[in-house]
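seq as requested:
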Amino acid sequence: FILIGSVIAAFSVPLIAVANGMRSLPLLIFAILFTLFAICMYRTMTVAIVCDITPRPLRTKADSIQKMVGYAGTGAMLVAIAVMVPSGDMPNYIPLFMLQALVILGSAVVYAIRVREPQLVQKMHDESLKMGIEESEIMVDDSPEAGGRAKITDRSVLFSIAMLLAATFFYYMSYAMTTNISRYADMFYNMEGGSYAIINIVTIVGALSGYVPLANLSLKVGRKRVAVASALVMALAPVALWLIPGFSPVFYLVFLAMGIALGGVDMCVYTMLLEVVDANSVGRYSGYYYTVSMAAQVAT
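struct tokens:
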């Protein structure tokens, strides 16, 4: 899934820029849909593998590292946007999107050469045993002969899963600035070209700076408390943007706080979701998580 999805994305990402330059809406829609499909193929599996190879008590920390790497990559691309996208009504995006394709292919090559999943999973089992955790005791039969999926019958567990996925939907919706930030910055802040990327760069800096402290804090006070506190910040920060008209440099502090808060709630809710499912279902529920998060962005 990871390797095939990466190859598809490496071809479809530049096609978006080509379609934009041709001003072909049908081709643009096709390229975007194809790219999203490819990204879903490899992103969900990559995140699931991080949890597959990490003992349960350390998953929040592992997820914080995974997200730091992801945000660092996003930050690098935002810098590239700010540098490579000129001002104007129809800038040329092809060099930028070709750079993205090369990064995707390069990552896939490194993954193919360096990562050996079965050995890493076995190492996780060994480390879990040292912690007194026997993964085989909390696994259920997930084989094709048993229907191919773990059956969760405990209503309280099903309710927890539903609430965690609902929380995911709404906090991604509340973080809608990432969905249309380029248009919003242009219309309300008069930012042209790739200058809007500075807003997202500040937000990402907030997320990067907050992941490790919040992961450590969640181990002391619990994931739920960190998630709720982060959600409150996410609710309050946009109020400041709404109440104050125009753009002010002070807003960068708000964007910084929003980045820290999104990182906190995202990291904790995802690992809370995986705590209530068995080890064989990590990939499936990671898929549910990202389906919900992307659906929220589409709806927004």
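Residues 125 and 135 are 7 Å apart (CA to CA).
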